[in-house]
Recover the amino acids of this structure.
């Protein structure tokens, strides 16, 4: 009951502040339930730019709120938990990237959106897990620097004839899956299809029937005629998969697929953020401008 009161309070505060609640696909169920929009980080940032609301409550991790601030600089972007970071994004620094660029002069940098605004600002173009191959192939160059996710990078490289220079970053949550665990689940559910995110390690990707982004997973599982799916990404995705497909069964590929940062934000945190109008995330103009250029170059890549 207490939770129901909190949900009502959030909705009332959103109305009085002319605010919109955006929740990432990995957020806790109760937050996805009351969000105005759920989605992946890029879709949410684009919603932030398009909405008429003056205030964005971004339920996700820090780099996502930065992307919203980059694309919607005139709006107030609230991140209810400032300590919700992304270990993968933190694995690459501006200095580290400059050093790598120095070793490969003239080679373009393709940066996964799971990165800080400052790293995006040092990059030629961004990519998401859904468009990474298209972005790489859109460049005329034969060599690519790919940061920060070694797994997404190596997955894309399988379909490209270009030479890649990887940054050895990774998502600790996705890397907690084991091939033994997947093989055991496949044995227990022989009719289930295994779908995983490209942030998974190569040995896991090898075992998958399909590899795609979170948004891709909603589409693929809805359209598939299979009844059972083993899901290889963060547990928050199960909420909408189960809502949209009540007749299908979704089995989490590992009990370890909980991202501690994605699970930090609570309804109480959202109430506090809307009451105090803090904490906010604002990307300074000298970083925002080059970071926006890298994001907009990605958005300009044709969709096939
Ligand atoms: O970019 C995102 O939102 C993430 C972290 C995953 C995905 O595949 O949508
Ligand atoms: Fe970062 Fe992985 Fe958590 Fe996503 S799931 S926020 S990539 S640590």
């Amino acid at each position: 009951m207490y939770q129901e009161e909190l949900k009502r309070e959030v909705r009332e505060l959103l109305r009085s502040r002319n605010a919109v609640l955006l929740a990432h696909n990995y957020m806790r169920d109760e937050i996805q339930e009351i969000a105005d929009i759920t989605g992946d980080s890029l879709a949410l940032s684009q919603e932030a730019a398009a909405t008429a609301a003056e205030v964005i409550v971004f339920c996700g991790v820090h780099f996502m709120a930065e992307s919203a601030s980059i694309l919607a600089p005139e709006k107030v972007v609230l991140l209810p938990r400032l300590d919700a970071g992304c270990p993968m994004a933190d694995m690459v620094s501006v200095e580290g990237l400059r050093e790598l660029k120095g070793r490969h002069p003239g080679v373009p940098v393709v940066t996964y959106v799971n990165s800080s605004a400052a790293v995006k600002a040092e990059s030629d173009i961004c990519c998401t897990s859904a468009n990474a191959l298209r972005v790489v192939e859109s460049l005329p160059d034969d060599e690519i620097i790919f940061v920060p996710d070694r797994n997404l990078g190596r997955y894309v490289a399988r379909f490209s004839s270009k030479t890649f220079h990887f940054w050895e970053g990774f998502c600790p949550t996705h890397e907690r899956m084991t091939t033994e665990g997947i093989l055991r689940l496949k044995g227990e559910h022989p009719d289930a299809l295994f779908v995983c995110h490209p942030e998974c390690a190569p040995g896991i990707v090898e075992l998958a029937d399909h590899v795609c982004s979170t948004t891709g997973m909603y589409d693929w599982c809805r359209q598939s005629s299979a009844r059972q799916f083993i899901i290889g990404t963060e547990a928050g995705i199960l909420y909408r998969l189960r809502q949209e497909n009540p007749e299908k069964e979704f089995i989490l590929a590992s009990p370890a697929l909980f991202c501690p940062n994605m699970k930090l934000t609570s309804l109480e945190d959202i109430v506090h953020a809307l009451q105090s109008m803090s904490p906010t995330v604002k990307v300074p103009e000298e970083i925002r401008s080059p970071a926006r250029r890298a994001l907009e170059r990605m958005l300009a890549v044709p969709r096939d």
User: Anything to note?
Assistant: The domain at 174-252 is CATH 3.40.50.10800 (Rossmann fold). The mean pLDDT is 97. The pocket of (~{Z})-2-methylbut-2-enedioic acid (ligand 1) is lined by residues 24, 40-41, 113-114, 128-129, 197, 213-215 (CB under 6 Å). The radius of gyration is 19 Å.
